[in-house]
């Protein structure tokens, strides 16, 4: 079968697209014929060696996929041959990745793909939708009537946070870096959108939420804690899911006097039960059309190295080229 894999870490050029043996589903695993996969920043970190995991050799890239179950191993109870499914949390913590024509995945990480949802959208929603759900509902415990500020509302995770927060009944303020991206965030449901290249985040938020925001969702690699604490309401919650190497100054006094809380998390440490709870809501919303995958670019699997270059430029260099997810197709 065709797969995109690496045998050593490095630049995107180390990625090989070639033939490797088909996987065989073991106990508790399903074999998926893959139709679409999605690129995530963490894929590029693992490929480059910036994040070190113990990986199979050769190591197939990718966390997300959507396709059809074509075989099952012993002890599989909920998936059946012919089921449309999506999966995430692969390629991490010793698990093999998803950028291949066929993948063997533990049943606990597989979720049904609603008939009305395309494979591309199912793959694109995976990691970013689960991340948004965990951060909003497990960590921030967002409630109807609250106000959230989403830094980077047009990105993969940010676009999901905007939509889910609206579905939860919150008022959403979000930032983006161009007028085109701002318009996209408005279409996703944000009540107030700030072009951070032309407007002051602080001024617009103060005007829009004079009592402060209840949740501050930070996506930047260098979090601005002074700004966050200044803009949060009493008992505000700040969500961190980026900035692995950041070491910013932290305003301890204002933070604790306001009774704020700080929540850092990574979705790949979520339990299968937590993942399934998130997936149930995500599937419900995707099927109804109230949650939409934010796909920026679609490419064939053969162009995976270029996809990694674009993802790195967007994540590390703020190129502005992407306004959502890169999807790779295997059809």
Describe the structure.
Helix content is 31%, strand content 26%. The strands form three sheets. Strands 3, 5, 6, 7, 8, 15 and 16 form a seven-stranded mixed sheet that branches. The protein has helices at 41-48, 119-139, 156-167, 179-187, 201-208, 225-231, 252-257, 272-288, 304-317, and strands at residues 2-6, 16-19, 29-39, 59-60, 64-72, 84-87, 102-106, 110-112, 147-150, 171-176, 192-195, 213-218, 232-240, 261-264, 295-300, 325-329. It has 331 residues and is α/β, with parallel strands linked by helices. The longest helix has 21 residues, at 119-139. The model has no long low-confidence stretch (mean pLDDT 96). The chain has nine helices and 16 strands. β13 (232-240), α7 (252-257) and β14 form a beta-alpha-beta unit. α2 (119-139) packs across α3 (156-167) and α2 packs across α8 (272-288).
């Amino acid at each position: 079968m065709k797969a995109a894999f690496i045998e050593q870490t490095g630049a995107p050029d180390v990625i090989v697209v070639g033939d490797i043996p088909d996987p065989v589903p073991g106990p508790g695993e399903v074999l998926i014929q893959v139709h679409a996969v999605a690129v995530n920043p963490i894929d590029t970190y693992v490929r480059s060696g910036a994040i070190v995991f113990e990986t199979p050799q050769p190591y197939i890239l990718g966390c997300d996929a959507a396709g059809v179950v074509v075989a099952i191993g012993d002890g599989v109870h909920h998936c059946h041959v012919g089921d449309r499914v999506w999966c995430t949390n692969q390629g991490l913590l010793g698990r093999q990745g998803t950028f291949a024509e066929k993948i063997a995945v533990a049943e606990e990480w597989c979720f049904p793909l609603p008939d009305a949802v395309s494979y591309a959208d199912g793959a694109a929603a995976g990691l970013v939708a689960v991340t948004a759900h965990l951060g909003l509902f497990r960590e921030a415990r967002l409630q109807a009537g609250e106000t959230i500020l989403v830094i980077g509302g047009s990105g993969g995770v940010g676009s999901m946070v905007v939509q889910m927060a609206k579905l939860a009944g919150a008022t959403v303020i979000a930032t983006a870096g161009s007028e085109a991206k701002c318009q996209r965030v408005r279409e996703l449901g944000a009540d107030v959108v700030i072009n951070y290249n032309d407007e002051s985040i602080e001024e617009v938020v103060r005007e829009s939420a004079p009592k402060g925001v209840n949740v501050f969702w930070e996506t930047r690699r260098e979090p601005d804690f002074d700004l966050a604490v200044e803009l949060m309401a009493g008992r505000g919650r700040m969500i961190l899911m980026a900035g692995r190497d950041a070491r910013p100054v932290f305003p301890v006094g204002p933070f604790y006097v306001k009774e704020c809380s700080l929540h850092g998390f990574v979705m790949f440490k979520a339990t299968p039960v937590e993942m399934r709870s998130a997936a149930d809501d995500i599937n419900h919303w995707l099927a109804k059309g109230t949650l939409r995958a934010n796909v920026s670019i679609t490419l064939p699997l053969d162009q995976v190295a270029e996809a990694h270059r674009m993802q790195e430029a967007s994540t590390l260099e703020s190129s502005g080229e992407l306004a959502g997810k890169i999807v790779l197709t295997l059809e």
